[in-house]
Amino acid sequence: MKKFGIIDLIMILLVIAALGVGFFTYKHFRQTADKQIEATSKVAFQVFLRGVTITSNVNPIKPGDDTFISIRNVPYTNLKVVDSRIEMKKVVLPNPKGNPPFTLVNDYSQLFMYDIIVTIIDAAKITKDGAVVGGNKIKIGLPITLEGKDYKFNGTVSNVQLVKEEAGKGKQETGNGKQ
Questions:
Q1: Within 10 Å of residue 100's Cβ, how many Cβ atoms?
Q2: Which of 19, 81, 135, 144 is deepest in the core (most CB within 10 A)?
Q3: 89 burial via Cβ count (<10 Å: 0-12, 13-18, 19+)
């Protein structure tokens, strides 16, 4: 029989360690990634697009259209736009009458600057840390890019809510978003 070298002993120990990890995973002593998923549900998240420059007053993101999203600059998929609201930039002015103490008016010094809020729904895996879409945890502040045939806007997630479907009606309502 030939002598075992140090390399041979290291290789044998690595094989034994790998078999041990496999055994403990099989016997459920070690938790794998798929065991951390508690449920699968639809999640609605809003993307806030601040200071978008548009020279027409028509919102390019329309409800019912598809938009391609990238999460943290990684391309993900096309999703349906559920809702899209556009507002001209506002400025706060004091109210001389005092009640309310201020008023909001359109800021005409920034004629073509708009804020847009887009609502998108996607299937998500629900974990202890929150909703996971496309391998990313969807949380407020997450950078997202929306891209259509004639626009590409960068924004951030501003709201995340679980979508509850009523039994038999197919109607959707959003939950409280607490995770």
A1: 8
A2: 144
A3: middle
> What amino acid occupies position 114?
Y
Residue 141 makes CB contacts below 8 A (sequence gap 6+) with 156, 157
User: What are the pLDDT digits (tens) for 75-107?
Assistant: 999 999 999 999 999 999 998 888 888 998 999
Interval 103-148: pLDDT, tens: 989 998 988 999 999 999 999 888 888 888 888 889 999 999 999 9
Distance CA 62, CA 85 (A): 9
Strand pairing class (39-53; 136-137) = unpaired
CATH T-level topology, domain 36-174: Elongation Factor Tu (Ef-tu); domain 3 (2.40.30)
CB 112 within 8 A of CB 55: yes
Collapsing DSSP to helix, strand or coil, 160 comes out as strand
How far is 169 from 172, CA to CA, in rounded Å?
9
CB atoms within 10 A of CB 159: 14
Q: Could you tell me whether strands 136-137 and 130-133 are parallel, antiparallel, or unpaired per DSSP bridges?
A: antiparallel
